[in-house]
Amino acid sequence: MFLYESENSPAGKPRRVSLEMSEIAQDIPPPEEEKNMKYFGALLTGRTSLVFKRDDIVNIPSTSKNPAYQIVATGRFTFHKKNLYYSFYFTNSLNKNTPRPRTIQFINYRGDLLEEQNLPATGSVYQNSTSKVCGVWRRIPREYKRLLRDETLYVALLWGNNLALSGQIARLKALNTEQFSALLTPPYSDLVEPDGGGTAIISTLASPPTVHVSLVFNGVFLPDDVADVPLTVRLENTEKGYVIFEEIIRVQKPSHTINAEEVKSLISMNELRMITRGKYSISISSRQKPELYYISGSITTRTSCEIFQAPLSPSSEPDGLDAQETISMLSPFPPSSGMAWLYVNRDGSITYNAQITDMQEPPVFTLTPTGKGKKTLDTQQFSPAHVSNGLATGTLDKLSPKLLEFLYAGELSLSVSSARTGRVVKGMLNSRPVAGAVDSKAPALLKRVQGKKTSDLTGMAWLSIDFDCDLYYEVQLSGTGAEFRSYQLFLEDTPMVAPNSPVSKRHLEDFNGTFLEGFTQLTPQELLRMDTGVCFFEIKDLLTGAVLLRADMKQLKIPVECLSYTSDNDVPSFVSMSSHRTMEIKKCYHEGIFYDEGSQWRHPRDPCKMCHCLRGKEKCDDVVCPQLSCPNKIKLSSRDCCPTCYDSSNELKTTVGCTQAGQFYPNGSVWHPYLPPYGFNLCVVMSCVSDAKSSVIKYSRVQCPPLKCSEKEAIRVDKNSCCKQCPTPEVGYARDQSVVVEAPRKKTDEEILQEGGCTYLGRGPYENNTEWSHRVDSIGVTPCVKCRCKDGVIMCERKRCIRANCANNSTTQSNSDVDDCCSHQCRYRRQSKHSQRRKLWKQMKRGTA
């Protein structure tokens, strides 16, 4: 029964249902609510969409002649951990190539839009293979969850602005045991409106062979059918054209929108096998005019979007070991690990995938039931069709009804054995809804990193990034005692796999047990690092901190929208690039190796270059060799750049010497110290000498010759020169005009910089010992700030004024020490003192009052 309120809401706009505190108090307790709110279903036809025929709702068409009403869809919904997973089959009565819907909407009984999701134009690998539409509505609000429980929530599929179907989401008990589904469509006829349809929820038993069918339908009643209407339900083989069973049901009160009936029958084992292979169809027809009023459809696998997965680990259970598992435990090869995932296609075939470490030849797959009544004859073995790079894929065309029953019940295990190594890995197949991370192309294998070689812990992780740039993940572990341990989950990225590569690691969460499902928001910097670098998914032991499992994230795809530098109107912002820096750079990458900030090293291919890392950028300088006064000079090895004095009486040993700044120097070596970022200090000479016990480094300072000019006039020919020199006198025109001398040549920019010149904010170069006023582009010259170039270094200072100058300025204006710069500073000081006195006077006045 629907509950209507007098308050109306605008069409197509989200509206939350108001709740009273008394209503919340009467809610079902969470554990029981989770149990009762598990499975829901919906039928979407032209007749079910009539509920929303209102003028103020523009999303739903108001006529059954619309082409969308020739489409029939059925949906399955699973409520799990505050999330509503949805799955849809849909078909067209005219042609079977029905396009995918563009949008899905969730609406309440008044037509208010609660949730809207855009569906991708091209589905995933799973959705395209099974012809399904899959997704999830995450974190449903509490008030919307009450609508779901009260069956007052509706779903709509939209193919365009005027092309939509909708239906009520209802609780159906038969969905708990559903194994097969059928989507029933009417024949296209000008005599009858093709707006009917139905769905069949089918479950079977292998012993004894039984089929149970729950039907939800409409559109098979004549206009004058009002009560106790007989209908024919027929199960038949569409290829051979014979009827398996035919039942007559009677509908007491036919409904224009939704009718529900059930049939049950015994069948043969061969007929049950044909049902699993999609060979049969089911139909509902009127007894009076079956040629006009009937709906039919093929039986396929159940509508729910799901995959079955299993982390594969070496078997360590002592009970029930078969011959292969015994050989595996005695095998000299290290234990393998892997993962497997499979899904059931519409025709009943199984598409399977398995990734095993160190798998080189095609293995043998074995499906074994583990539930009650299992028999050795129920097992099924097969070999994969394709094996490449440790990944085995294929399709299993025939699966026995018993194994399919065990698979849906979660009582089927998969073991993979190798004939060459004798190793066996196995795992229990568990069902997972396909949405979010599980809807990606393939999971990532969590491989063992460290620990005992006999450890059987393994795992698999599904990863995906949605259009909101959030990372979703699902992790499942397997191994002895894995359910009793505690773990930590980390996200790690690095620019590349290289020695000393910088690593950015983020702690996601801690968890217990073997299963984890979650999501995290990613920053633009993290997204760029994940797109341009190498990412890992890492699991550690919570108690010891040891890395247990690790997986690379090569298969992770990042939406283009998450990597955009520009805004929606394609106008780049002022700080667009600076706000998307990939990381805070702390290392330098040079010749295939990462170096820490501040470190120095010798160029690996050129021994006459020394390099250093500064602010994430490497710089290399040419080695300057000290001048040697000895007659015999020799290079000890090809890796040396500078020669060493050689004395025939003392044998030089290249293995004994000194270490300075991470560099090794043999005994007898002489060098200038390398001091990044300024380069080599030519004023100091270092030497490695050997004493009685060890080798030591000795320092000596270069002695500069006396200058023939003043210190201020002396200059350095090169900015790294140790000793200053007097400038050469400028050459000009002689006073005697009859004698003409050569005019001075203008220095180039390179010569000015080599002589200690400077560049400042793109201007210059300025010669050594020159001074100028600071300049700001938006203001102009600031005479109060003076800059000076001295030996390649620029020093800028603001002119400072002493208080005595300010005091003199208040009494006389003729003081030469007080200029415009000091006048401004004195005025600022007077205003500051005046404000302090005024503040103190106000405080004293309040105290007196």
How would you describe the overall organization of this protein?
The chain has 849 residues and is mainly beta. It folds into five domains: 21-171, no CATH class; 180-301, C2 domain (Immunoglobulin-like), CATH 2.60.40.150; 312-432, Immunoglobulin-like, CATH 2.60.40; 435-562, Immunoglobulin-like, CATH 2.60.40; 594-701, no CATH class. The chain is built from eleven helices and 53 strands. Strands 17, 18, 19, 20, 21, 22, 23, 24, 25 and 26 form a ten-stranded antiparallel β-sheet that branches. An eight-stranded antiparallel β-sheet has the order 13-12-15-16-9-10-11-14. The chain has an eight-stranded antiparallel β-sheet with strand order 31-30-33-34-27-28-29-32. A hairpin with a 6-residue loop joins β37 and β38 (609-614). α10 (803-811) crosses α11 (820-848). The radius of gyration is 41 Å and the shape is elongated. The two termini are 74 Å apart. The relative contact order is 0.05. GO terms for molecular function: BMP binding. This is Dorsal-ventral patterning protein Sog. One of its GO terms (cellular component) is extracellular space.
